[in-house]
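Supplementary Text 2. Reproducibility record for the structural model of the 288-residue chain.

All settings were left at their defaults, and a single model was retained for analysis rather than an ensemble. We include the record here because the model underlies the residue-level annotations in Supplementary Table 4.
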Amino acid sequence: MKVALIVPTFNRSKILSDFIEIIKAQTVQPDLFIIVNDGSTDETGSILAQNPQVLELKGDGNLWWTGAVNLGIKYVLDNHPDIDHILLQNDDVILMNDWLEKIIVLGGQNKDTLIGCAAVDYRDKESITYAGKYTHKWFAYNKFIYQGKKISEIDVNLPIYPFDLIGRGILIPITVFEKIGLFDAKHFKHRGDTELPLRAKKAGFRLMLSFIPLVYDMPDKTHGVDIKTKYTLKDLKPFFFDFRSSTYIKYRFYYSKIVADNPIQFLTFFGCSLMAHSRKFLKRFKFI
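Retained model, structure tokens:
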């Protein structure tokens, strides 16, 4: 099994430098380590120049997440026919030294499966921040798995088969891209990580999430248009119409199209999804 690790980055050289050291300390090294530098103007270039084991691919600053990972995947497809799995990861995470080894072992044990990583808060190493979700295919109702739980309260050896997967630590067989193509950068310029696993599932691949190759994420350092404890009127437009937001209406539209098997299901799912996100906004709305 040969794995290419692809990591997009933009203007966070200190975080990237720490991440490269985390990968260098892994018990197993990736067969190919690609950093997609999308037009960084800080010290990113010099850091990558000091790490010859990393292959730097350069963007113009307009790739965003989806275009950046696609650039890396296309490079692998065009130049490395021996690679059989793509591993995507963010640079703003903490990983144990055997993380790469564990996810590779899981990949070898689960053919035709996209494997995602569960995450816990790096501050207490206990609070579960991501374990996937179950989503109703008609009414868009989400049940977030192990929400509010601590890792000590669950059986970490039990695999989870979620509705979709995110791009923070996901192992994808190369056959997925050969069968259904790359991530959809046209309709998902940013936040494009969840759509491809859905298409892969429809094409016959399995989605699995595991606590064994665990990711420690940093919720206190995560910022986003749609990640706030309260909203005001000035947040309304970016919440629904900024492409950096996971609640961007265009993304919800095309995500719903992938989920649905017929037009009625699409209209139902899309409408329910919009209502759910509207409730989220109103629940946190404050007059100032």
